[in-house]
Amino acid sequence: MGRKARKRAQEHEAHRQHGVAGEAPEPGENRPATCPRCGSTDLVIGRYMAGITTGVDIICGHCNWQGMIQPGIW
């Protein structure tokens, strides 16, 4: 790789949009550590609330797999 190509690559990486880190998982909750589809550990975990339904949304940052953990019956 030449000097100009390396410089262009560094500038391109500096302008690339980086994702926002998800919330840290609360201890004691049953959440997957890896994506069931691709095995990636790049998971974004967030709360889901739509009317009466609540839960936890999980989205893989690698393969865009989406899942939801519904709360247990209390």
Description:
The protein is of the alpha+beta class and 74 residues long. It is built from 1 helix and 3 strands, in the order αβββ. The protein has one helix at 3-15; strands at residues 43-50, 53-60, 66-69. The protein has a 3-stranded antiparallel beta sheet, with no helix packed on it. A hairpin with a 2-residue loop joins strand 1 (43-50) and strand 2. The chain is elongated and about 55 Å long. The model has no long low-confidence stretch (mean pLDDT 78).
Strand order of the largest sheet: 1-2-3
Helix-strand sequence: HEEE
Strand content: 25-35%
**Pairing-aware structural class of the strands and helices?**
alpha+beta
Task: Please describe the biggest sheet, giving its number of strands, its sense, and whether it closes into a barrel.
Answer: 3 strands, antiparallel
Mean pLDDT: 78
Overall strand count: 3
